[in-house]
Structures are given as C-alpha cells and as structure tokens.
Design a protein that fits this description.
The protein is α/β, with parallel strands linked by helices. Helix content is about 35%, strand content about 25%. It has a single domain (about 35-255), classed as 3-Layer(aba) Sandwich (Rossmann fold).
C-alpha cells in the first residue's frame, strides 16, 4: 500500500485551504484582526509557554487554536505559539494558518529523548534533518526518509549559539507519532546511524515549511535518555534548560528578522 493512499495528491488541489479558513475566521472576528508576526517560536511545553508570557511584555492574539503571544521588545515581529498540545497534526495545521497570515519563519523548540549518552542535558541539540516516521509530512511532500530544516535559519541558529558560547550539537532526529512504540531495535539502528534524538514534530515542521516556501529550524533539550536496556527519564530536571532554550529561541528569531 502506498503512503499516502493516493500519492498523486501532491499534484492535486486541496478543497479546504488555510486561506479559506483565514477568510472565515476573520468574518467571525469582531474588530480589527491583529497583524501577524514575521517569525514564530513553536512551543510544546505549557510550562515554558507560561514562563515566556509571564517574563516578557507583549500581547495575545486570540483567534488561533492555542495561544499566540507577540513580544513587545521585538516590535511584535516575533511571537511564540503554545498551549495547543503536542504532536505533528496540530502543529502542521497551525503553521499552515500562520503562513497564510504572513509568518515567514518558525523555530520549533522542546524536549527530546536522547539516543547519545555523551550529550549532556544542558547542551542544545540543533536538528538539521528528521526521519519521517510520522504521518503528516507525507501529505505535504513526496515520501523519502528525511525532512530537512531550512539551511539559512539553521545556519543562523548555530551562529547565534556560538556567539553566546552555548554548548550544542547538530544532527538528525527521529520523528515518530507513537512514543510508546519506540522499540529497542529502532533505537539501536538509529543510534548506529548517528541519530541524536527522538521527538514528535520536527519532520512535519520541516515538510510544511518546505511545501509553503518558508523557513523552519528546530532545537531541543534532553528530557530523557533511551538506551538498549533501560529508559532514564530526566523531565523533572529540565526547567532551567527549557527556560534558557525559550529565551534563546526568541532572541535568535529576533536577530533573524531584524
């Protein structure tokens, strides 16, 4: 069976489009519709989203699913999108809508399980490409093993991290929809290939950005370690790392659109 079921869909016209949804949403909104930012941090952690919205001045754009918060100190050109949950499908839907409204760059940030014991929790991981072991990306671009981050934004991200003397690694990630079906055989095979992390969104983020002609990059901090004989969860130790990740992502996008 091919995937998606009708692979010719990539050359077909969708019935429902983000532009049509924007028109409908605006028709149901009282008053002026807020101007979208140029760039958006995609945030999957509710705790990190709360930290960012409580730590910075700004304004909420309330006509998206979840919450879009625009940072005042970026002249409202950079926002953070959060409180919408986790996973590729909702992320892709919101990216589509934001691109239709004018957003041109996305930096996806969050936790990731780590397949390399040599990576410390305090170090950032910049994802240059992601294995497409989820469903969403295959509906946007033709199926192949990897979806790739945007070169320009990824290069800018690593340049900014070097300038800040932030320790980081660059490498591939494994994007999957099924966190409780990550088998030992898969972990061993991907670790042997040099895959650094496993998470749920990067491949879809990159594929949507590629399809829509916008920039997208991704950064993670380690939340747990996946070995062949054991799982070592560290979520309870990530608060400080996540806050630094959020602050850094905001500043990276601010300098990128400046």
């Amino acid at each position: 069976m091919p995937f998606p079921n009708r692979p010719e869909k990539h050359d077909a016209e969708p019935l429902v489009t983000p532009e049509k949804h924007t028109e409908y949403r605006q028709s149901q909104t009282e008053g002026d519709v807020a101007e979208p930012p140029e760039a958006v941090v995609i945030c999957y952690s509710s705790g990190l989203m709360d930290y960012l919205t409580e730590s910075y001045e700004g304004e909420v754009v309330d006509h998206y699913y979840g919450e879009l918060f625009l940072f005042a100190d970026t002249d409202y050109e950079v926002g953070v999108l959060g409180h919408f949950g986790i996973g590729a499908p909702t992320t892709a839907m919101l990216m589509d809508e934001l691109v239709a409204d004018g957003v041109e760059a996305f930096l996806s940030i969050g936790f990731a399980g780590c397949l390399d014991d040599d990576i410390e929790m305090s170090e950032f991981i910049v994802c240059e490409k992601a294995i497409r072991d989820e469903g969403v990306s295959h509906h946007y671009v033709e199926s192949e093993k990897y979806a790739h981050a945007s070169e320009a934004l990824t290069d800018h991200t690593t340049e900014e991290l070097r300038a800040r003397d932030q320790s980081y690694h660059v490498g591939p990630s494994w994007t999957t929809d099924a966190i409780y079906q990550e088998t030992k055989a898969e972990i061993e095979a991907y670790a042997d290939e040099g895959v650094l992390t496993v998470e749920m969104e990067a491949a879809a983020v990159f594929a949507v950005a590629d399809h829509r002609g916008v920039d997208a990059a991704s950064m993670f901090v380690v939340s747990d370690y996946l070995g062949l004989s054991d799982w070592d969860p560290k979520f309870h130790l990530t608060a400080e790392d996540m806050r630094l990740l959020g602050d850094t992502a905001k500043e990276i996008l601010a300098s990128y659109v400046d």
